[in-house]
């Protein structure tokens, strides 16, 4: 017996993406992604960027087709939910036959300003914060930070704020204690008090009249009033996010990696967006869902629990002259969602956090995760074998590099994605996305090869599944 041939026939073979695709092809795609990630430091900015790209490629808002009163093959539709989530679809045949949907989230771990943020202590003006999502608090100290968001003034006028992303802008910092004075022996996760994540705003008093209290705070409020026309009470109706003032950069002598803030999960959002735009479906209608609030459980009316996209489908079904009550159930049952979310790559510095045999590696393509969840698969969608098998076949038939993965060791890791919220609506669902090093850090690491193969995987899924 030829055991070499037997091993070749029976064993699973994994190859690096770089072995089969030229660096320039991958790097050219990565350049577009870096432009996106640098322009999309918040979910609102990511939605704006996505709308521009969709409209450049002849997608039109849902109300355009509602006014037109009909829907035809080849029509491209998008719908925006409260400026923080988005649904887009290319019509190809009957929607009730199902759609091939890629769903990703646009929010990322960050630090938000509290509703009444500005205060003064020892003649330094600072802003109180509340962190958003799972972070290691110490990673946010003494790094350059930007401020982005929206303020709704007392008269209802919205004011967009972006400070720190331009070359001549000031940045912001949360100060740390110097090592000479830091004798804290607490575990590192407990060493930083969340209430001390205060952002430095300024040190100059508006006046040195001793009768004026908190002159430095008043000076900051005056600067903001002159620039934006806002008053202190307006902060209560604001969404202001503190994010790292880092742009995407190539990593390593070979430039094979990208460091950026917000890979989780804007890297899957971008690959899904470009896959939809460039797809040429020959089966079900391809669609994209970009949503908010995944990092805090997918709650609220812009998160995955809202299902705002289902009424959109109902309106599209009506435009196709379907009995909406029946057709929407057929649509959901016949649809498949790739829950497009990142995975934890095997880090050689922290191997003991993983089961190496079931941990994804950088450069080996998109990660297919049958389940995520916390210890004992709690809180997960555990994809049916048939769904895994069909996806595997589609990827193999189109020479897309893929690998499987778990989110850490069984009793150590686990996590949540948007998958389970779609499975409960009767869609077939499986997690699939890019492997990262340093997930949830202010600067995360991804492989350009995995970025490109994830785009290819989503495109093939949209076209062929």
**Strands side by side in the biggest sheet:** 1-2-3-13-4-14-20-16-18
Q: Compute the CA-based radius of gyration.
A: 24 Å
Indicate the structural class: alpha/beta
Helix content: 25-40%
The CATH homologous superfamily of the largest domain is termed Zn peptidases
How many domain units? 2
Biggest pleated-sheet summary: 9 strands, mixed
pLDDT < 50 stretches: none
| Overall CATH class of the largest domain | Alpha Beta
Q: The CATH topology of the largest domain is what?
A: Aminopeptidase
The shape is globular
From the 3D coordinates, which CATH architecture of the largest domain would you assign?
3-Layer(aba) Sandwich
What is the end-to-end distance? 38 Å
Strand element count: 22
Count up the helices: 12
User: Strand fraction band?
Assistant: 15-25%
Overall pLDDT: 95
